């Protein structure tokens, strides 16, 4: 261990991160091993590069942004039945798996625990996890198949999530047979001087690497291998906080299969030109999502001959991928974006720092940054009131109250 420690000290000195061992002697043996393991797994060159990027001026993008074609689920007319039959055939053959991204905590909702365990206030008191599992099981019965469910947790909530499922007998699923848990990746947080932060327990303070880490996490944790063993060819990826998410949609699958694309996404029409959502588009001729901060006012307001927004297809984090595309994207790292956040940590003198405002950088990848790797992607416009009821804020827009109302209306409960 001493030899190992000396090697680590040299590495830390090279990158001016020696403070990471300041509390080492005060830790018990188990924590010491954990800390050394954490340090060994850090890509210091990457962290340096990401920190240096926070000091650079944001470069103006010179990509050519153009509208993307889409199909409206309500206006498929004669094509509807064909797409439906194709999709249903694939679902019945067991070619679909569902992935739920559930690495977050319910902090913003005033909930102490994983976001998926949050009760949105229905009379049934079902958690978000139970709502999603009910939907999956219902579709499974409809197509006479068990749709395998893969749940991405985080280091922070993995234990609690699995315990919650165990307590509820996995909602009828069987662990490691048709329900699987895996953790998303994490990256160290750094302060404004590029120093990696230390948690109160002496270990390194890390943050989840964003929903863009889903591809790498599926591959690294052997989940795509399990999917292949189960005969899965298509993977639906969605978030845990949308209580109306339709993870099993034969129309979406039928479109992807018939159009011979390796990915398909769902969109809802922007509520108004100023709505703070990313929208589907093409960048330099390839599928992408442009953030609302990147859309000039003129582009946001632009309408077509029917008076519809030209850039109005909101990305709602409901995407279907061919397993080959997921594996390809999982083997190619995505760019990281920095976010300036509030973080409590232990300084180099061993003092606890509780900031009043943002004081540290976390780095995350965005799922849609991988879309540029695709030759093409099918977009299906769906109705907001039927498929998109996110629970993100404690009150107001996208809150438990709005989600409950949409859920009750849709299910007539």
Keywords:
Spore Coat Polysaccharide Biosynthesis Protein SpsA, Chain A; 18 strands; 13 helices; alpha/beta; 3-stranded antiparallel beta sheet; globular
- As a percent range, the share of helical residues equals 25-40%
Strand share of the residues? Answer: 15-25%
What is the number of helices? 13
What do we call the CATH homologous superfamily of the domain at 76-262 and 313-411? Spore Coat Polysaccharide Biosynthesis Protein SpsA, Chain A
Q: According to CATH, what is the class of the domain at 76-262 and 313-411?
A: Alpha Beta
Beta strands, count: 18
User: How are the strands of the biggest sheet laid out side by side?
Assistant: 2-18-10-13-9-3-4-5
Structural class: alpha/beta
CATH topology of the domain at 76-262 and 313-411: Spore Coat Polysaccharide Biosynthesis Protein SpsA, Chain A
Low-confidence stretches: none
How would you sum up the global shape?
globular
Radius of gyration: 22 Å
Q: Summarize model confidence as the mean pLDDT.
A: 94
Distance between the termini: 61 Å
Q: How is the main sheet built?
A: 8 strands, mixed
